[in-house]
Write a structure and sequence with these properties.
By secondary structure, the protein is an all-beta fold. The protein is built from no helices and 11 strands. The strands form 2 sheets. Strands 2, 4, 5, 6, 9, 10 and 11 form a 7-stranded mixed β-sheet that branches.
Length: 124
């Protein structure tokens, strides 16, 4: 069965960095775009970034552009999110999600599998 398992979250000071990972199994990872989505306390889901199945195309929300980098290692079936210059407003639970197509999108519609999430807290 499809499994997505996020890791790498934690507590970090403003201006710090974290790298999230999402280990995927149970499907042909390289054939599908993957997406990071976050949910801040008391707020709805926010699309963060997406990467195409081959890894050549990436998209970012304006709120993270220039600070976050999405990448994937198809040989290891793993998705990453490098987060630099973190701000308190980046505090959220971060989810990885599998798209139903290969091309990187700009929303979390049509995503059929989600991980359980990893907490990122940015605070001094």
């Amino acid at each position: 069965q499809v499994q997505l398992v996020e890791s790498g979250g934690g507590l970090v000071q403003p201006g710090g960095s974290l790298r999230l990972s999402c280990a995927a199994s149970g499907f042909a990872f390289a054939l599908y775009a993957m997406t990071w989505v976050r949910q801040a306390p008391g707020k709805g889901l926010e699309w963060v970034s997406a990467i195409s199945g081959g890894g050549r195309t990436t998209n970012y929300a304006d709120s993270v552009k220039g600070r976050f980098t999405i990448s994937r290692d198809n040989a290891k079936n793993t998705l990453y999110l490098q987060m630099n210059s973190l701000k308190p407003e980046d505090t959220a639970v971060y989810f990885c999600a599998k798209d139903t197509q290969a091309g990187a999108g700009t929303s979390f519609k049509n995503h059929d599998y989600w991980g359980q999430g990893t907490q990122v807290t940015v605070s001094s």
